[in-house]
């Protein structure tokens, strides 16, 4: 297996790893308000998140930016909590021509901004893999592609599950959104309470 495929697999496994579920929670919260027929909006949303985390993943891996790892580990669950909390204000609009639509375009900016934070989180793992390896551009690209494939898998699963719950089982979409977002918010709060950096802060 080539080095490219190895790092691609490592990126895919990293974002889909259940033991490191913080990134999974964020992606779930990000697309929880969408339905399968809104896949174009979800694609734009995911692209915004991708642009954000690709920028800081590259800059941090190339050591062009420096930051506190502990602070990033604290900020990631905060991004999850904010995204999940914003879902509680979800309201669907109905258009005769387009069906149910989501007009919360500010979510694209939110995904981009929070993607910057998650990219630094991804880079911690990638840099530990690279060690003193001279050529890091190819592994960086492969790892990022792997992340995207894993991310698309998570999004596809959420949209398909949403379709099953809302369209097949006839559960109101608002109830689905509130239930998923509530679970994600609760898990994000749990991550925050377990964060060692937060415990050292004095307010």
From TrEMBL:
It comes from Spirosoma rhododendri. The keyword Glycoprotein does not apply. This is HupE/UreJ family protein. The chain crosses the membrane at residues 43-65, 71-90, 110-130, 150-169, 176-193. Keywords: Membrane, Transmembrane, Transmembrane helix. Pfam families: HupE_UreJ_2.
